[in-house]
Design a protein that fits this description.
three-stranded antiparallel beta sheet, 12 strands, alpha+beta, about 20% strand, single chain, elongated, five-stranded mixed beta sheet, 2 domains, 9 helices
Length: about 300
């Protein structure tokens, strides 16, 4: 898990179809989604059905107990009943080995395992509730990514919108977080999590949820260069449409297959800082070419008409 989260400012780019672009421009809203809807194995681990393997859990419990049994100063990080049992046994049989202790306390170890399974089941319910109100907005760091145009830009018939803060502070556009791409999923659900739940350690933790659920994807998606905005809401629906500051839409990039007669003038009146670009193929690379018309020019033309 990430020890901390670093935020990214600057410009952020959202790929979309032309139909979606018109809806965004007319409504002034962007759609944030629940992580439960994501399709990558790393994205959905908290929503996936998970069972605790009894033998694995028992092994972990015994290792934890062994560490405590070897410690002269027994801590209370195991069920209180086991801690008290350890103290009594060590006082009465100071030379008793850990293996012998396990033999005479097998019922207590089973008790810890059952407690862990029960606590973990309750914790999973809390995680699922937490996920329902977690909402994520997915963007990337550039408007010229060919794969992104293919995936989300309707094969170059769509649009990329560029968003950037018009303030130094207090704008969520200054709080983007880069997705962590991994080649091996380090799941946080399973026997270890069950024991931690039984010991009273929090699993429904904001940083953990962001790091492992909303900000982790498999390396096969690394070419998307994704950055995300994560917000805890009170909305349990799969989606929520949230408004953005009109001054923070600073660029609109149309795909090279978009009809050159496509007119954004009416929709852009409310976005004074938005500049228009058209993507063009130059030496097998996509390049944004500024268009003469910007929303400022449109606004001036409408005022003088």
């Amino acid at each position: 898990m990430r020890e901390n989260i670093s935020y990214i400012g600057g410009s952020h780019f959202k790929y979309m179809t032309m139909e979606t672009a018109k809806k965004v421009l007319s409504s002034g809203q962007l759609r944030w989604s629940s992580p439960a809807l994501f399709n990558d194995v790393a994205d959905i681990q908290f929503g996936a059905p998970v069972s605790v393997v009894a033998e694995e859990l028992k092994s972990i419990v015994e290792k934890r107990l062994h560490a405590l049994y070897s410690n002269a100063h027994l801590s209370s990080t195991v069920a209180p009943e086991i801690t008290r049992l350890m103290r009594r046994v060590k006082m009465q049989y100071p030379k008793l080995s850990f293996e012998e202790f396990c033999d005479i306390s097998s019922n207590s170890i089973e008790y810890i395992c059952k407690l862990a399974e029960l606590e973990f089941s309750e914790c999973k319910v809390k995680i699922e509730k937490h996920l329902k109100t977690l909402k994520v907005l997915c963007l990337t760091d550039a408007p010229d990514l060919p794969n992104m145009w293919g995936y989300y830009g309707d094969s170059h018939r769509g649009v990329v919108m560029e968003f950037a803060s018009d303030r130094k502070d207090n704008s969520h556009w200054n709080k983007a977080i880069a997705v962590n791409y991994v080649d091996r999923l380090e799941t946080k659900l399973g026997a270890h999590a069950a024991l931690e739940a039984a010991l009273g350690n929090r699993l429904v933790d904001g940083l953990l949820m962001k790091s492992y659920c909303a900000l982790t994807k498999h390396k096969s998606w690394e070419h998307e260069r994704e950055r995300r905005f994560v917000d805890q809401t009170n909305v349990t629906d799969d989606y929520v449409d949230l408004p953005f500051n009109p001054n923070e839409l600073v660029g609109i990039y149309s795909g090279f297959r978009v009809d050159q007669d496509q007119d954004f003038s009416t929709l852009l009146q409310r976005y004074p800082k938005a500049r228009l670009y058209r993507m063009e193929m130059q030496k097998m690379s996509l390049k944004p070419v500024p268009q003469e018309t910007t929303s400022d020019h449109i606004k001036n033309a409408l005022q003088s008409a």
